[in-house]
Write a structure and sequence with these properties.
single chain; 222 residues; two-stranded antiparallel ribbon; 4 strands; 64% helix; 5% strand; disordered N terminus
């Protein structure tokens, strides 16, 4: 294995075949390895020069499921970099070493994989090229902008608040991988729901602050 701290450029348009199968097989091989920790660099190396959609899916899908605390901290950071580069139309993906060095225990990665793989297998059977107006290079830049905003929401300390944006990013990623515009449309719908949830939570927080502050302000004659 090469140094996981090394940051390799990944061609956005390349989708070479993975040895031994697709996502599920690669994730299982990583979880069954003999290393003590699985790094982001190792995940990138295992998938090779995959499309932006492949890497978005790798880091977003685990956050869409109930996972051990800290999972979003390890897998969420690359989403910001990947989505931003997709948004600005870069053809080469680059991740800095401080991200590729991040890792989790192999046991935790195995638990994550055990939850993710069944979902990946089901989703792969449903996808097919269709409604490709939503999968053009121009459309990909709008997709990248949505994923960038959603990836920032992932970091907010809201219980289960990372799941709706992770679902949306996963749908976008699957649509990009299989040129499936229906999946992209589901991603946009999920994005709308995610922002709706954020707005509702923000209103609740403001209402709580106002309810707490109003009596205090009255005491001081405000």
């Amino acid at each position: 294995m090469s140094d996981p701290a090394r940051s390799e450029p990944l061609e956005a348009g390349d989708q070479p075949q993975l040895a031994g199968g697709g996502f599920s097989e690669v994730l299982q091989r990583l979880s069954e390895g003999d290393v003590e920790r699985v790094s982001v660099g190792a995940i990138l190396e295992a998938f090779g020069d995959r499309a932006f959609g492949a890497l978005l899916l790798v880091f977003a899908l685990p956050n869409a499921l109930p996972m051990p605390p800290g999972t979003s901290a390890v897998l969420g950071a690359p989403l910001v970099f990947i989505a931003f580069q997709l948004m600005i139309g870069r053809s080469v993906l680059w991740l800095p070493s401080f991200i590729t060095k991040r890792s989790m225990r192999r046991e935790d990665f195995g638990a994550l994989t055990a939850k993710v793989v069944p979902w990946v297998k089901r989703l792969e059977r449903l996808l097919k090229p269709r409604a490709q107006l939503l999968t053009t290079p121009v459309a990909d830049r709008f997709t990248g902008a949505a994923c960038f905003a959603l990836s920032l929401i992932l970091f907010l300390p809201i219980p289960f608040g990372n799941m709706p944006p992770a679902v949306a990013i996963s749908a976008f990623a699957l649509g990009m991988l299989e040129a499936d515009g229906v999946a992209i449309a589901i991603g946009w719908l999920s994005t709308t729901v995610s922002f709706g949830i954020m707005v509702a939570l923000w209103k609740v927080v403001l209402a709580g602050v106002h309810a707490f502050a109003a009596p205090v302000l009255r005491l001081f004659g405000f």
